[in-house]
Design goal:
Layout (H helix, E strand, L loop, with lengths): L1 E3 L4 E2 H9 L3 H9 L3 E3 L2 E2 L6 E2 L4 E4 L10 E5 L3 E6 L16 H10 L6 E2 L8 E7 L2 H9 L1 H4 E11 L6 E10 L5 E4 L5 E12 L3 E8 L6 H8 L22 E9 L6 E5 L4 H5 L5
Parallel strand pairs: 10-16
Antiparallel strand pairs: 1-6, 2-5, 3-4, 3-6, 7-8, 8-10, 9-10, 11-15, 11-16, 12-13, 12-14, 14-15, 16-17
Length: about 280
């Protein structure tokens, strides 16, 4: 969690205002060296902050967290999920999941946690949980009404014939958990918008935005254009140059159902994605 300093004040006062945490909880963060000011550890509660500085709350090495926290307040927690980590438990894994790790992280403050959306195990990026049952009910009841932007960065095989476009069809899932395109009568509508932002001889980097959030939607849609996502052998990829699925959730924006405030979160494109397009 990063916070920009807009007014000069002592560190403790700043953290109380920004995080809505209790004074004792902030003292523990300072004691265990979880507070950084402009990149250095700061444990003095009265440290005088200046305008323009950046304060960050960060888990130390050895902490149970396997990811960065992009944002947290009394109602939300937004993480940067790494590739390979499950969003929630499966039949084969219940402990090492984003949901369980965040639940344990919040346990000390006796806070609840609710999952409002998911990312595939091998998709990295923005994953949001809520701490309020009321907020959970409102968001999940009308997710598409409140969520305005769901953006991804995808690396696909080959050069795109069209630099931008929209894919709209119907998807369903087989008994073997493969998602495929079907008829209107048998499937659920799925709409994906894409725009090419970088390309070379072998790969293209796309910015992708969703109007719907079907399982494996981006993977199936891009594969249907004969440009599967790199590392996605399930949907036809032949290459895996970065040893992971080339899909990253980089932007999420929604209108808070209670406060009506616009909430927008971003995550940097992984360096391994960028390296594919560096010359030399």
């Amino acid at each position: 969690m990063k916070y920009n300093v807009e007014h000069a004040m002592p560190l403790m006062e700043f953290l109380l205002n920004k995080t809505q945490k209790k004074r004792n909880d902030i003292k523990k963060l300072l004691k265990f060296e979880n507070i950084y000011v402009d990149g250095h550890i700061e444990s003095y509660y009265a440290y005088p902050l200046q305008i323009g500085q950046v304060v960050e709350i960060q888990a130390k090495k050895g902490n149970q967290l396997l990811f960065s926290i992009l944002y947290e307040d009394k109602e939300l927690i937004v993480i940067d999920k790494p590739c390979g980590l499950l969003s929630e438990q499966t039949a084969g894994e219940s402990e090492k999941t984003a949901y369980n790790i965040v639940k344990q992280y919040l346990k000390k403050n006796k806070e609840n946690i609710y999952m409002v959306h998911r990312l595939d195990q091998y998709t990295s990026g923005i994953l949001m949980f809520v701490k309020s049952k009321k907020l959970y009910d409102l968001l999940t009841h009308d997710w598409n009404h409140y969520v305005k932007i769901r953006g991804y960065i995808a690396i696909v095989e080959g050069k795109m014939k069209k630099s931008k476009g929209t894919i709209e069809n119907y998807l369903t899932e087989s008994k073997t958990q493969n998602v495929y395109i079907t008829t209107k009568e048998k499937g659920k509508k799925a709409i994906t918008h894409y725009k090419q932002i970088q390309t070379n001889k072998y790969y293209s980097m796309l910015e992708v935005y969703l109007d719907t959030g079907r399982k494996n939607q981006i993977r199936v849609h891009l594969s249907s254009l004969h440009h599967p996502i790199i590392g996605d052998d399930k949907y036809g990829a032949k290459t895996n140059p970065i040893k992971r699925l080339g899909l990253h959730a980089h932007e999420l924006m929604f209108i808070h159902p209670i406060t009506h405030k616009e909430m927008r979160f971003t995550s940097q494109t992984p360096e391994s994605f960028q390296k594919l397009f560096k010359k030399g």
